Amino acid sequence: MVARRLVVAVLAVLALAACDDEPASAPPPADRPAGPTPSSALPAPGSPGSPSTAPTPSPVTLAFAGDVHFEGVLGDRLAADPATALAPATRALAAADLGVVNLETAVGTGGAPAPGKQFTFQAPPSALDALAAAGVDVVTLANNHVLDYGLDGLDLDALDAADVDVVGVGRDARAAYAPAVVDIRGTRVEVLGATAAALDPTADPTGQWAATPTRAGTADAVDPRRLLRAVARADASADVVVVYVHWGVQGDTCPSPDQRSLAGALVGAGADVVVGSHAHVLQGDGRLGDGYVAYGLGNFAWYAPGATTGTLTLTVQPGAEPGTARATVTDASWAPGRIGTDGLAGPLPGPDALAFLADRRDLQACAGLSGAS
């Protein structure tokens, strides 16, 4: 993988900073590139060597998969060897310039199960080692399981020290909404994570997990205003803006009205790519205005076998200048799979892969999306 972690730069206009208790401005990190790395493409005919002609950035590939946890047989694989716990299923993630998944579990070893929750998940910090070894670059923890064992069961020090970038959770609200900033051959990609999985508080406490200025927690998107401001800031500094959202209705293959509304708002705020999970089934992916949306990526590494899943790889052409030209998804391809008894997604055989493509067209239609090409 060529992705390399950069220091996150907080670039905020005065009005937005006042709302979020963030500094009005900050200098860019010392190792941030001044702009896209010049490609080998020749200048446009008629203007050779023109200083006003910006070089065209090279395309980047971004790969996304859905929910990952380490329960059941996956816990056994993690305990046996983190370096190989996921690697057999993650070739498409590792092959892309940037690989992103949702880690659907608390990461730590302490705490106690949250009262009133039917399912509580927890994995040791070695789960992050397994993801890094599998070729994953960015992990979102903004979901309804990250605090299954309370704040005592979330090892924030381990998140900070991980070899993957972790988004969507933090020691306070500012950290929870901060993007991962990744350089890919001079193209600046910023990835944010947030959760809009608001459940009945009488049955599930996850609606109380939002980070505050003084308390650790998740980046909340039930009220999306702060997330939209964070996306607008990222759009001002990044070549490509990605938002991974935990949202939707479990078991529904078509996105809910709330998902569709939030997706439109995120694209309008500057997100080039919006992906999500939580429904535990695949939902449609395709173009939405100036952006590309994949509403539901399903389960990816999960204790229940049989589910159809896959890895979505997007080829993205960055705009010429951050904040002035939108990045464009020029190709979208799936590596379809099915979760086996080992908890990992294996490739679909030929006839099932063809059926997957037909189902994808149906999912696009019910999501109101069009294809990438």
Automatic annotation (TrEMBL):
Stored Gene3D superfamilies: 3.60.21.10
Region (Disordered): 23-58
Signal peptide start and end residues: 1-26
Biased composition (Low complexity): 32-55
Domain Capsule synthesis protein CapA, first and last residues per copy: 61-304
InterPro entries noted in UniProt: Capsule_synth_CapA, CW_Biosynth-Accessory, Metallo-depent_PP-like
Keywords: Signal
SMART domains: PGA_cap (SM00854)
Keyword Signal assigned: yes
Keyword Signal included in the entry's annotation: yes
Pfam families per UniProt: PGA_cap
Protein family membership: Belongs to the CapA family.
UniProt name for this protein: CapA family protein
Biological source species: Nocardioides anomalus
